[in-house]
Design goal:
Length: 447
């Protein structure tokens, strides 16, 4: 848990420091954003595989390996000498980070039992999002005082401590002994998703420079679509033929498996896309420093953390659907408030930004526990790890798409209308999340 909270804190601090890192390393914002996007792409590629490896070889073993490798990769990020090296080390961190979340979540869900899975996710999220709130208090001023590299050294040490603590305290849980590893299924799925994400990124970039016509005919976009679709087709073929598939295709026909994944990805699109844009809005439109921007961002993870236990408790009272619906509605309202705040530069605008940050935290905090628990509740018990991995993968798809598309749409323009229009793209994603949430069957946790 300690390393997962450190990961969330570090992600938040990197997000608010993008402009500072870009200036120090002599590159642009579009390039330095790949320190986040590259990490997310890697984790999107490998997380289901890491969850499957936990099902087969043990969630404890995978968790500890991820913690150790993540600590080393984080320290290397602090030693990066230019933008490409920093991006490479962040990608390396993503390789090990992919092993942490799905296996940590599986360990907690097993400890809480089937009837309290949403409660487990709620408290897990409470810790992982509460830590960034405290981290912003320390990390924001630390960046202003000692530079952005200091946070990597600090959280590399925290991850190392977490590895030692986990080795002593974390207990192993039952695993699927003798189950073969479906490597072909894992990698065809991973590369299929990767191709789709690269296509989204290249399409957004091409649209900014050459308009919609240029984006449609962009060779990188077309090639990425072909690669993504081709690998996803191979994934379906592989899973139909192997005796023990990594992920049973029948799960996708289950409404309460596929729809929560779609809604969660759409909510994350608006959540992280808007979060990357907000520091730029504060620094370029309102004239705030990096440290001040970091402190003002505290309401988002703070409310996220405080709302997560409520999100974990609600499914037992009202079923799985309504917490997801409430989260989508809250995200829709937040994107509207952000758009109006972008048109101002006064105290009322700051108050609107704080309100919007609170609403985004509320949206994620209420919806994520229900989404995570419902996804696992919809599969067989021995597939808990891969279900958690799929939940993480689709979240990363939403995160990467949101960050890239909204960052590219904004570009280097600081006009208020551009900021407002960018937030309206997040609004569209949140509306998609609401449609999917309304179609979820309103079941309660199984016993």
């Amino acid at each position: 848990m300690l390393a997962v909270t450190a990961f969330g804190t570090l992600m938040t601090l990197v997000t608010v420091s993008l402009d500072t890192m870009a200036e120090d390393l002599g590159t642009g914002r579009a390039t330095i954003t790949w320190t986040i996007t590259g990490l997310m792409l890697t984790m999107a590629l490998l997380t289901p595989l890491a969850g499957t490896l936990g099902d087969i070889h043990g969630h404890r073993k995978m968790l500890l390996g991820g913690l150790l490798g993540g600590a080393v990769a984080t320290i290397l990020c602090g030693l990066a000498w230019d933008a490409p090296s920093l991006i490479a080390f962040r990608v390396l961190f993503g390789v090990f980070g992919a092993a942490v979340n799905p296996n940590a979540m599986s360990l907690m869900m097993h400890a809480y039992g089937p009837e309290r899975r949403s409660t487990a996710v709620g408290w897990f999220t409470f810790a992982t999002t509460g830590a960034p709130t405290l981290g912003l208090i320390v990390g924001g001023p630390l960046i202003d005082w000692a530079g952005w590299r200091s946070v990597f050294f600090l959280f590399g040490a925290v991850s190392a401590v977490a590895c030692v603590v986990g080795f002593v305290t974390v207990r192993a849980i039952p695993r699927a002994e003798g189950r073969p590893l479906d490597l072909a299924g894992a990698f065809t799925l991973g590369f299929g998703v990767l191709g789709v994400l690269v296509a989204i990124t290249s399409f957004a970039t091409a649209a900014q420079s050459g308009g919609l016509t240029g984006a449609i005919t962009d060779p990188v976009t077309l090639a990425s679509i072909a690669v993504g679709v081709g690998f996803l087709y191979l994934f379906v073929r592989v899973e139909r033929r192997v005796a023990v598939p990594m992920l049973k295709l029948d799960y996708f026909r289950r409404r309460n498996f596929s729809l929560p994944l779609l809604s969660g990805a759409a909510i994350q699109f608006a959540y992280m896309g808007g979060f990357v844009i907000t520091p730029s809005l504060l620094q370029n439109r309102y004239g705030w420093s990096v440290g001040a921007s970091a402190l003002l961002m505290m309401p988002r993870p703070g409310v996220f953390s405080l709302a997560s236990p409520l999100g974990g408790w609600l499914p037992s009272r009202v079923g799985y659907r309504w917490p997801v619906v409430a989260g989508a509605v809250s995200m829709i309202i937040s994107m509207c408030v952000f758009a109006f705040a972008a048109l101002r530069t006064d105290g009322i605008g700051i108050a609107m930004i704080v309100a919007a940050l609170c609403l985004t935290g509320l949206a994620a905090g209420i919806s994520q526990p229900a989404i995570g628990a419902l996804t696992v509740d919809s599969v067989d018990e021995q597939d808990m790890g891969v279900a958690n991995g799929m939940n993480q993968q689709t979240m990363f798809v939403g995160i990467v798409a949101g960050i890239q598309i909204m960052s590219v749409v904004l570009g280097d323009v600081t006009e208020p209308e551009r900021y407002a229009g960018t937030f309206l793209i997040g609004l569209g994603a949140a509306l998609l999340g609401l449609v999917a949430a309304l179609a979820i069957q309103s079941l309660r946790p199984r016993r």
